[in-house]
Design brief:
Elements lengths: L6 H4 L13 H6 L6 E6 L2 E6 L3 H17 L4 E5 L3 E5 L2 E4 L3 E5 H4 L6 E2 L5 E5 L5 H14 L4 E6 L5 E8 L2 E9 L1 E6 L2 E6 L12
Parallel strand pairs: 4-7, 8-9
Antiparallel strand pairs: 1-2, 3-6, 4-5, 6-8, 9-10, 10-11, 12-13
Length: 202
């Protein structure tokens, strides 16, 4: 989100504005809120605290490791806005999103769900139901082919899904060193290393 607010208006809480269903133009004009994670669901703001350090650590590593193993035509980004639907407006901020390099190189302010081939969400205490139910349905409806859900609870695990006939089909749950299919390529992720000092080397 970019901000056109200044002075007293800029200090206004995102939780107090606006009092109507958001349009994409409203979303773009929202003030920056670094202390919160903000998304829009069917025109309504959803505000949550920023994730805990382990979650942020895992997201940073996942984005890097996935990006290093992707074919050149794709790249991975962490915590980038993605427009799932414009009317009513739904904007999500996936933990990791994989899209075409050609699109990312245009440096867009946000990606469209139509450009997303893979989305990864890392579960946290406040997002489990959202990631496993709400986003699960939204991403399938938007046509995102691959969806991975990472659970950092020991032992860390990942469930990979692929879109089949407009519904996600589980490709299985893995722990330890996971080998995950993406468009015919195998991406290797050491799940236990996501939140330890023993960082995986690509």
């Amino acid at each position: 989100m970019t901000s056109s607010y200044c002075g007293e208006e800029k200090a206004m809480s995102v939780m107090e504005w606006p009092h109507h269903l958001l349009s994409l133009e409203d979303w773009i004009d929202l003030p920056e809120t670094p202390e919160y994670q903000v998304e829009a669901v069917e025109g309504v703001l959803v505000v949550a605290p920023r994730p805990m350090p382990f979650h942020q650590w895992a997201v940073t590593r996942l984005g890097y490791l996935i990006n290093e193993q992707l074919p050149e035509e794709y790249c991975a980004l962490s915590e980038v806005e993605m427009v799932v639907a414009e009317a009513p407006l739904t904007v999500r901020v996936p933990d990791v999103i994989v899209g075409p390099t050609a699109v990312v190189e245009t440096n867009p302010a946000r990606l469209n769900a139509a450009d997303a081939r893979l989305v990864v969400e890392v579960l946290s205490e406040g997002t489990r139901r959202t990631d496993q139910v709400t986003k699960f349905s939204e991403y399938a409806e938007a046509g995102i082919e691959y969806y991975w859900i990472v659970d950092l609870a020991r032992p860390a695990s990942v469930i990979a899904y692929r879109l089949v006939d407009e519904d996600y089909e589980s490709l299985g749950e893995q722990s330890g060193v996971a080998e995950l299919d993406f468009d015919g390529d195998v991406l290797t992720i050491d799940l236990d290393a996501l939140t330890t000092r023993r960082a995986q080397r690509p």
